Amino acid sequence: MLLENRPSDARRQPGRSTTTRWLCFAALALGAPAEGGEPTPERKVAASEREPTYARDVQPLLQAKCSNCHQRGRVGPFALMTYEQAKKRAFDIASVVDSRTMPPWKADPDFGPRLKHDPSLTRAEIALLHEWAEANAPRGEPASQASPTAAETSDEDDWLLGKPDIVLEMSEEFVVPASGPDIYRCFVLPSNLSRDVYVSAVEFRPGNRRVVHHMMGFIDVRGGARARDAAESGPGYASYSGAGVIIDGELGGYAAGNQVVHLPEGVGRFLPRGSDIVVQIHYHPTGKVERDRSRVGLHLCRKPVRQTIEWANATNDKFRLPPGESNIEVKASWFVPVDVEALGVTPHMHELGRDFRMTAALPGGKVQDLIYIPQWDPSWQSTYYFEERVPLPKGTTVHVVAHYDNSAHARNPHRPPRLVGWGPDASDEMCVGYIGVVKKGQDLTRPGERDDLYQILAEQYMRKLARERSRRR
Questions:
Q1: Residues 277, 249: contact at Cβ < 8 Å?
Q2: Global pTM?
Q3: Would the CA dihedral through 150, 156, 158, 160 be positive or negative?
Q4: How far is the C-alpha of 394 from the C-alpha of 94, rounded, in Å?
Q5: Taking residues 118-124, what's their average pLDDT?
Q6: Is residue 300 a contact partner of residue 198, using CB atoms and an 8 Å limit?
């Protein structure tokens, strides 16, 4: 996280009845339009006349909406890259897409601006997967001999956005003990850059997903992280509060389910020459000794950058969640110090989260909805980018309202429930609403234009810390 400098850190469900599914198939046969569009010629053909096949219908759908996660070395628990893999799980696939458990997309589509990268399936696509499963998953004839397995080309060295321009790796493995408290460790990755660059996308690749809870990237041009690393034995150095040194920028992070995407054209993250990338990793012991050697891939901007994105946050770290309470409200806010445009948001809670709502109160009294997660799932902590920028003038207040369930439920890490507050472990809780903003009107291609948004936000955060210290005294 940029300013707060603290870590962010399938169960099968029943599908619809057969009768309901066949109503969907009938809609397909009659040429009912998919959500958001007119019926295609293919959908005007009765299902009985054109039985869906893997090669023609299912494979393209799985490649577009599922295989990004469901392949070797990715977050999906199994691969869906070949016909044999998909056929084996045909009914499971139909069930989880029917319940909207998969593809994972937790945002309420009727709240706030339209969002990019939504993988949700249409009713017609869901019905197609049901029909294919109930027809015993026919393979069909591929367009070319290689088509059914063309996607089976990845291995654990592949990257979601293709090969990065720069790949940085921990210099040696870090050993995580079998038990004990969660570990926050920072590792220094020299960029070795001979010139300043702008970064379009950052992909964090955990070396061991079993033990890596989350990762965060920071920029250090002063050598403070190197000094701390040299003063402490073993790989890296311990630091819960972010990088633990003065930083000169941030590179986002990784948490379960967070997708990797390129920033919009003309927007980038500034990475100065000779800088070090400091990667903070939150390790959660698994019950046995684990080893990790994680990497970071940087994709550079190809076109001129006019604006740099920075991530501010609305955070509450003073809350308490009493045991036995099932609907505890926690609020947080962030005051916008300069005219900005919001590009996206990242909600963050842990295991006790129930729901998360983020809005912006504009100076004139209007309220701008931003994001609503009606059913929080800590396994899918996405960054949600808006299709259109959301203007937030100076004086706007960004509000977070979140609810927590600290009763005796399956996801509660404490048995019996106990008092829980803000803390670094996965069994503690957090309440953070990150918001990615660019400075309105900024054009770094103009001579003399200052890139000062990070400095503005950093100074705001330091004033907040000073006020808190003064109140404590």
A1: no
A2: 0.78
A3: positive
A4: 47
A5: 83
A6: yes
**Could you tell me the domains of the chain?**
18-149 (no CATH), 159-307 (2.60.120.230), 309-473 (2.60.120.230)
CB atoms within 10 A of CB 261: 16
The token pair that represents 329 in the structure block: 């409200």
> What stretches of 362-446 adopt beta strand conformation (E)?
367-373, 384-392, 397-404, 420-421, 432-439
> Among 46-60, 130-144, 292-306, where is mean pLDDT lowest?
46-60
Instruction: Tell me the two tokens of residue 376.
Output: 């929080």
Q: What percent of the chain has pLDDT over 90?
A: 60
Measured in whole angstroms, the distance separating CA 107 from the mean position of its chain's CA atoms is 12
Hunting for tokens 């139909």 — which residue is that?
A: 94
Between the CA of residue 39 and those of 27, 30, 317, what are the distances in Å?
A: 10, 9, 50
Concatenated DSSP letters of 15-27: ---HHHHHHHHHH
Contact 219, 5 (CB under 8 A): no
Cβ-based burial of 292 (10 A; exposed 0-12, middle 13-18, buried ≥19): buried
- Beta-strand relationship, 432-439 and 384-392: unpaired
Work out the pLDDT band at 5, boundaries 50, 70, 90. very low
Judged by DSSP in three states, 466 sits in helix
Instruction: Answer for the pair 85, 123: CB distance below 8 angstroms, yes or no.
Output: no
Q: What is the pLDDT of residues 313-347, one digit of tens each?
A: 999 999 999 999 999 999 999 999 999 999 999 99
Residue 370 CA to residue 368 CA, distance in Å, equals 6
- Do residues 309 and 269 lie in contact, with contact meaning Cβ atoms separated by under 8 Å? yes
Average pLDDT over residues 148-159: 50
Structure tokens at 378: 């800590």
Residue scoring higher pLDDT (145 or 443): 443
CA distance 98 to 13: 9
Highest mean pLDDT among 21-30, 44-53, 269-278: 269-278
For the four alpha carbons of 20, 132, 108 and 32, in that order, the dihedral sign comes to negative
The DSSP line for 179-212 is SSS-EEEEEEEE---SS-EEEEEEEEE-S-TTTE
The tens digit of pLDDT for each residue in 244-289 reads: 999 998 998 888 777 789 999 999 999 999 999 999 999 999 999 9
Q: What percent of the chain has pLDDT above 70?
A: 86
Secondary structure of residue 224 in the 3-state scheme: helix
